[in-house]
Amino acid sequence: MFGFAQSKPIDTQPKDTVEYKQAYGLRAGIDLSRPLISTLDENYTGFEIVADYRLTEKLYLAAELGTEDKTKQEDLYNFTTTGSYLKLGFDNNTYENWYGEQNLLYYGGRLAFSSFSQTLNNYQYFSSNRYWNPDDFAEGSNIAEEFSGRSAVWVEALFGTKVELFANIFLGASVRLGILVSNSDGGDDRFPNLWIPGFNKVTDGTRFGVGYNYSISYFLPLYKKKKQPKELETEQ
């Protein structure tokens, strides 16, 4: 009988070189908390669109676009803030997914812009002499006055997660710390900016603000790229 020569040497330590592809594309959805609060609180109306686009295995371009209308009652005055905002930035995924998973545990940053107006609905005068008004302060005015042309710019640091519930359907949540860069009163300093859409309450003596969102979104795969897993080392 004839033997056949081995043309290639036998690799006694084979390595895992399996290639698989990851989906890249656009994910878009809405923030769930704002419609919920709008339903429960008659003094608030808000809506926010969220989106991100995958650039690399870990890096995503991200954005939020929203509108808010908030009425607040303080001790001596009642005011309404109405406006919109845009946030642009990135998310960096730190979660190591198993094969086929697309979950995110990320940190990121945003540069945010808001344009809005404030309306002073009514106010009262403060007076330490309560003789004429023992139960309340003296009435100032019930005629609403609008202060328009307001704007603000801030940066945000955030930490969040997105979990795939079903195929391409993601539930997300994030917490955000904002720092005001500018806070313009539009040239009219008679009434300060007390609440900024997208930033929330403005506090005297500090430029910091805290926010959050809870989102549901859909991921639209546009193309796939190969990922080469790390070679598995075997014991000698």
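The above is record 1. Record 2 follows with the same two-line structure.
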Amino acid sequence: MLEVIAVIAVILAVAIAVILVIAATKSSTLRVQRAIRIKAPPDVIFPLISDYHQWLKWSPYENKDPAMKRSYDGAERGKGAVYAWNGDKNVGSGRMEILESTAPSKIVIKLDFFTPFEGHNTAEFTMLPQGDVTHVTWLMYGPANFMSRLIQVFMNLDRMIGRDFEAGLANLKTLTEK
């Protein structure tokens, strides 16, 4: 009986070691990017992103927790605008602050997650006109701490977050192509 327990313990220890080694080999940077072509000028799209009050209309994260608490601070829109949220396990809690707002082409946001896992990232939205369409890109990047890399052993964060970005960009497209 002791031999069986010892074998099981060794197998578990090896499995844990393998998982930790795989996590250690994951990239130390998280980067998720999605893009869409929207048949609307950048100056129609830009205000929906530079004003956090407008995110209720298009952000895929706004509907994940109907009881989520939101607060706005700083500037009304653009550089210095701050948005904080506190919700259930689906959205956690965090804070965003617009660091750069270059109308109508670029918005850079400092994105801090507090729960369920701490993370500090940068989000960028770029709007580049190309004929009668605007190429809109949503990019998020930042350091991937060891916990994030451990999660990536079991979950594809690019696919998971990317789906949300795709939904948000599709919402922007629907809103602005009316």
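The first helix runs from residue 2 to 25.
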